[in-house]
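Technical annex, item 7. During the second reporting period the consortium partners agreed on a shared format for inverse folding records so that results from different sites could be compared directly. Each record opens with the tokenized structure and is followed by the designed sequence. A conforming record, contributed by the partner at site C, is shown below for reference.
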């Protein structure tokens, strides 16, 4: 079973690399702030890692540093990974030590082996052995960083996940997919008309989005491996804001076919359209909760736009946001405990989170033109689009607000981010 999961993961990446074609601009990451109680980790250069296309230890270090959860110590080169002086590394302030080796196999793959060592208890905490094709060496490094994050924090790492977003340069729009660190950019769709609202399927093989290529907003689902597309909603008026159900069988969409925009559900193949909201106002931006029991959405039924929650089968809706007079773009955390949204206050559009149990809200961003938040699949980070110096870029912030990243490209605007799921 584990082998089949790994194969599926690689097939999806291979499909993207082969079918989509490389995009033209890589992203640059700037990091500010650090997490509380950073864990000191020493990372050694992997023995013989220069034989591989990617330097494993450099990718692992960058992942750990970007998370803000670790203080990374450069351990240089350790020639004998089977004979470690734990006390020496403990004296250097490292709670854990990462070591590894890379060996090229006769079939062209690379045998990547890693160990995570506990310098305090003087024992091995974890290890992974991977036989990796050349094009997946970066993915192998991300998986090692994921394992380190899990073993040292108790939370699953999201370094090997993917993100999708839209870039705009003049009249050219591109739906792109990349690693969570902005590397490995692949093109999914190019158009001379706007592309908005991409949303990952729960299995990570498809993206739903809205395209204006028919000179009106139409909802599509695109298979990222085969590039086959399905029209999911092309009703009279506006078709917008697709959001997947947790089991991937349905989407929630916002349609104006009956007058005011309302929330509908539809099967992933475009059949079975059903209206589930009924108000005299505008109901839009639906988002399913991870347990499938609720749909959060934006509505102006009480005057200004606020966020509500209802059953996926319709019925009464309960208002969720009360702070501020303008709250939009709801995103619910994977554990269902935290709501992220964009709130307009004092003329600024900023990212907020709301603890649903306590009603406590917190502003996470210090920018003023934020939009389109998206949780990492482990719930620890939120990606969103913002504007600085008349350029749109992506930003990532930890849910406690301590760690901030900015992802920019050298050309064009980058917006409409969506963070992909864990790959099984």
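Designed sequence (site C submission):
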């Amino acid at each position: 079973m584990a082998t089949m999961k790994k194969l599926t993961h690689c097939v999806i990446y291979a499909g993207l690399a082969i079918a989509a074609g490389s995009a033209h601009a890589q992203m640059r990451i700037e990091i500010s702030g650090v997490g509380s109680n950073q864990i000191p980790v020493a990372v050694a250069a992997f023995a013989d890692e220069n034989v591989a296309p990617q330097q494993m230890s450099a990718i692992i270090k960058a992942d750990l540093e970007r998370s803000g959860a670790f203080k990374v110590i450069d351990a240089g080169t350790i020639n004998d990974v089977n004979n470690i002086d734990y006390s020496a590394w403990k004296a250097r302030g490292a709670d854990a030590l990462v070591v590894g080796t890379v060996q090229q196999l006769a079939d062209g793959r690379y045998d990547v082996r890693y160990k995570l060592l506990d310098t305090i208890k003087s024992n091995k905490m974890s290890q992974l052995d991977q036989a990796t094709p050349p094009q997946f060496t970066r993915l192998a490094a991300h998986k090692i960083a994921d394992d380190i994050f899990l073993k040292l924090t108790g939370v699953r790492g999201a370094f090997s996940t993917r993100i999708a977003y839209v870039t705009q340069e003049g009249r050219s729009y591109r739906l792109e997919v990349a690693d969570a660190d902005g590397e490995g950019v692949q093109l999914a769709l190019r158009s001379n008309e706007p592309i908005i609202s991409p949303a990952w399927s729960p299995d990570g093989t498809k993206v739903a989005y809205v395209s204006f290529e028919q000179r009106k907003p139409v909802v599509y689902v695109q298979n990222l491996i085969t590039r086959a597309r399905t029209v999911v909603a092309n009703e009279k008026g506006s078709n917008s804001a697709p959001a997947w159900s947790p089991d991937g069988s349905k989407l929630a969409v916002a349609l104006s076919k009956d007058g005011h925009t309302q929330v509908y559900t539809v099967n992933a193949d475009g059949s079975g359209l059903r209206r589930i909201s009924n108000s005299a106002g505008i109901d839009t931006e639906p988002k399913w909760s991870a347990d499938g029991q609720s749909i959060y959405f934006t509505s102006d039924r009480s005057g200004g736009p606020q966020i509500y929650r209802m059953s996926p089968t319709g019925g009464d809706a309960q208002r969720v946001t009360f702070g501020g007079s303008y709250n939009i773009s709801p995103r619910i955390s994977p554990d269902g405990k935290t709501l992220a949204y964009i709130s307009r206050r004092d003329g600024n559009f900023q990212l907020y989170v709301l603890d649903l149990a306590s009603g406590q809200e917190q502003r996470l961003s210090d920018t003023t033109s934020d939009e389109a938040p998206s949780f990492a699949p482990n719930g620890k980070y939120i990606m969103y689009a913002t504007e600085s110096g008349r350029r749109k870029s992506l930003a990532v912030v930890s849910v406690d607000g301590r760690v901030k990243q900015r992802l920019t490209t050298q050309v064009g605007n980058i917006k409409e981010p969506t963070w992909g799921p864990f790959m099984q």
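Helices lie at 2-20, 56-67, 86-91, 137-153. The chain is about 15% helix and 45% strand. All partners now use this format for quarterly exchanges.
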